[in-house]
Specification:
single chain, mainly alpha, 4% strand
């Protein structure tokens, strides 16, 4: 069996197993947080005092997961620039460009709100504000579409009802809640992991015929290291965040995004 099949199938199997086992564990031991519940999203994770990765402020999330496509892109370009001439193809660049487009469409912009935001809306989501007091308030959906900051000073009509508001000047950005909140982290980590495994294939296949340069050796190591981080990040996300269905749909969309990239 060729190295291509071995590496890609092994990484795909490990990724799938991590999500499955992590999700089963999260259900059995009640470790996950329902991020679509507006009464919970602004509260610390119920395990934050005993489980470091249950807090969104952990370094893995802040430094890596929130910048996942940037790290994935750095690994891709390190491989591409240091690889043999025959591997520096327009096809590889096109795959990366399409992956970037998929990432943007699902997480940032799709003729307005991103697709993941639209999924929440069409599944019964509401544009809500989680007030510092812990109360939640529904507001018109355009505030979520434009990601506009609101406050009692800038939008007094939104806060006309008798709510317990804190003193002083503060602002907050409304978010879509209560609908089906597809796990964007699982989506992006799945697509990134499979994309990098695909990009490693030419290097692993050609090693016996064309020895790696020192720079390309480091690029391969860097890429394997990035994949390892994404697998661990997938593990922590599966344990602590999103409902099982939200993780499943994130995984399926990530696989679909990668399948689209492979069509080039």
């Amino acid at each position: 069996m060729s190295p291509k099949v071995d590496v890609q199938q092994a990484i795909f199997a490990i990724l799938t197993l991590i999500i499955f086992l992590g999700t089963v564990y999260s259900v059995k031991n009640h470790t996950y947080l329902d991020t679509s519940d507006p009464s919970l999203t602004n509260l610390p994770h119920h395990l934050h005092e005993t489980h470091y990765f249950a807090t969104k402020a952990n370094l893995l999330n802040v430094l890596f997961i929130k910048r996942a496509w940037a790290w994935t892109s750095s690994a891709f370009f390190f491989l591409w620039i240091t690889g043999p001439r025959q591997q520096r193809s327009i096809r590889s660049l096109s795959k990366w460009a399409l992956g970037t487009a998929v990432w943007l469409v699902f997480t940032s912009w799709f003729f307005g709100p991103a697709l993941l935001e639209r999924f929440i809306a069409v599944s019964g989501g509401e544009c809500t504000i989680s007030l510092p007091s812990g109360a939640t308030l529904s507001v018109p959906s355009e505030f979520c579409s434009t990601r506009s900051s609101v406050s009692p000073h800038t939008h007094p009509s939104l806060f006309a009802s008798p709510l317990l508001l804190p003193e002083g000047h503060w602002t907050i950005v409304p978010r879509m809640r209560r609908g089906h909140d597809v796990s964007g982290h699982i989506f992006l980590l799945t697509m990134s992991t499979l994309f990098l495994a695909d990009q490693l294939t030419p290097s692993l296949r050609s090693r016996s015929n064309s020895p790696w340069t020192p720079a390309h050796k480091y690029a391969v190591m860097y890429t394997f290291g990035t994949i390892a981080i994404w697998l661990f990040a997938t593990y922590t996300t599966s344990l602590y965040f999103h409902t099982p269905l939200e993780k499943l749909t994130g995984y399926l969309l990530g696989v679909a995004g990668y399948a689209l990239i492979r069509m080039i």
